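Sample entry (244 residues):
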Amino acid sequence: MMERFDIWWNGLSGLLKVLYCIAFPSTMLLILQTLLAMFGMHHGAHDVSDTSGLDMHTDVGGHNFDIGHDIGGHHGFDIHHDVSGGHGDIDAHHSGDFHDHSINDNVTDTSMHFFTLQTIVAFLTVFSWSSIVLVGSRVPSLAALPVGILLGIGTMALVAKMVQLSMRLAENGTVDLRNAIGESATVYIPCPPKNQGMGKITMTLQGQMMELGAFNEGEEMLKTGTKVVVVDVRGDDVIVEKDA
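Predicted structure, serialized as tokens:
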């Protein structure tokens, strides 16, 4: 078996060897991504994540940039600037933690992203295999490679659009808690005054009957059955006041 492979491999031109070295890994990654999407193993607010675990680390002239994005919906940015002239260090860290709740309190980004892990893998797969077919059909490499690149770019655009549509579908299926602001609700578990504890309210939001954690910034206890109005959102909970 290995003998046959060696004979086949040694009979390839240098260009075809490079194309096969691109085609095999990218195809495996594409199959893996497809299986993960089919079996729902992508984490986060939608099935197909935007970068699916891309991580970038750059160190240029004493400037250290570390950018990470994981598919769980956690975004981290760490920037470290070291000035050697005794001016000290400047550190900045920003992190966002999006919790997996039935209420999604963050805004889903539904814009189309052209350069993501999915689109890059799709480009490499289509570019390499289409170029292999063309070169194998005795099309000159100067013509085969540009055609492969164009087909790859077209596939990138198609995949980016599919990801955008899937994100919009996911967003339409989630409840945006900010839509509760200004809506009426009924106290289910009493809400202590001056944010001394959390109560519960029931309300209809986006066509669904929901029970939400509620804080009361007023001076009096909001007892069970009291009619209230949602005035603000705090994380996955709301702030209410007595309905006038």
